Amino acid sequence: LKGRDLWVLVLGRFPTHHKIGIPEFKYVANMHGDETVGREILLHLIDFLVTSYRRDPIITRLLNNTRIHIMPTMNPDGFEATKVPDCYYTQGRYNKNGEDLNRNFPDAFENNNVSIQPETQAVMNWIKNETFVLSANLHGGALVASYTFDNGNSVTGSLKGYSRSPDDDVFIHLAKTYSFNHAIMYKGTGCDNRQPFPEGITNGYSWYQLEGGMQDYNYVWGQCFEITLELSCCKYPPADQLEKFWRDNKVALIEYIKQVHLGVKGQVTDKNGNPIPNAIVEAKGRPHICPYRTNEQGEYFLLLLPGTYVINATVPGFKPMLKTVEIHDSTSNFSALKQDFSFSEVSIRSRAASCPKTPLYQELEQASAAVKPTLHVLVLTTVMLVIFK
After folding, report:
1. Residue 361: CB partners within 8 Å, gap ≥ 6?
2. Does 230 qualify as catalytic in the annotation?
3. Annotated catalytic residue: which of 35, 230, 282, 299?
């Protein structure tokens, strides 16, 4: 990637900067350079969004209430290296250094001993600098919407062949939103009668285990829900098929963006109304291994399905604030439920809190294994107390 930039086009009413209350969304394609369909349909999507603005009321509302980032190619060198288009695997999958970018991110389950590539580092910096809420990365070689986790251990239930995140219900909804709005993905037939995918979706780990993937990195360290979209059985199809791929995916691409408005959002402020960055805000019962925190403007965004939740806001050193919220499907209103938190006794800016890039779930697995005997003792003591009371 010597001297080359990765280009992103940002669309929205305020494309140049983040606006409070407007969620950030992204699509990334072509991280495997020989998987070309996503790259092409994202260019079509840009054209469609720009030309439909102020003509189509739905697209107009979508762009007025969402900041949409589109990166058509994350691996331009790999794309250019694919001299002979092929439906199957080619060397163009890798970047200029021969590295697979979707095995190149820090991993939450094991030490990923790879040297971080310039493309990977650029995307990690991008994730750090924006408050992304929802994302998808576009691939080829299968026809399925695959969701977190791609890797796993006993903590996430991988022993049963499925690696479950705390937001598994939301991920299933996101994957189905895409597959059921796609022309055929929801049928779940897969490619060449190989592995069928019921309803056109799969847990990443259930399909095949993968270390250093981008979607798990987004979810754990970027606070961004990302799924992987496999859009074509043929990785590099003939150009005359591209229009059909666009037609097959057009509705799904739009409906998926709308899901960034699911759930609840708001600001955490101090007694003077100033934003508190790095406050932890999470729904009770679904803690993240790397707690989800407010951004510089004190904002949080939590993707949640309709239902009743208790939202817990915590500023270190102060009593947490709990608020019960009733969430409805807000995607058609293009705004998640708004719930602010004001800490009347706080007048300090919370210190920056970064989450270590170590395999956090590995540590959790070791801790839970070490804790097991202690738990038995605890139960025993409780029983003894009850008996002798």
Report:
1. 108, 109, 152, 153, 155, 156, 289
2. yes
3. 230
